[in-house]
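Sanity check

After download, print the first record. It should look like this:
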Amino acid sequence: MTSPQDNYSKTHRSDATSQEGEEGYYRLPLPNRRNREMFAIADQLLGGSRIHVVCDDKKSRMARIPGKMKRKARVRAGDLLIIRPWDIQDEKADIVFRYSRTQASSLSRRKMLPEEINVF
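Expected structure tokens:
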């Protein structure tokens, strides 16, 4: 008689590889233009969960890292971000998502980044 762990390992293989090959396809979030979201590059850390960013509309803004993101992801200078400018003050924004280096280079290879911020 086999143990339950043996049955689980046969049906749910954690080391299974995808059919697409080594690189594979994975879904990445993109900026929602209807919500005024856009790509940005983190330029300078200001302290107090604030970062100076350069956006794809060639403006520089002061972006704020919200609390739920501050606990999950560390934002560093040079990171690719999705930001949402404030309705009241256009020179300020909130950070919505941070891409890892491999995700940013994947977006760059697929030509999904604007030319203004394509540094990857």
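If your output differs, re-run the checksum step. Summary of this record's structure: The CA atoms of residues 17 and 24 lie 9 Å apart.
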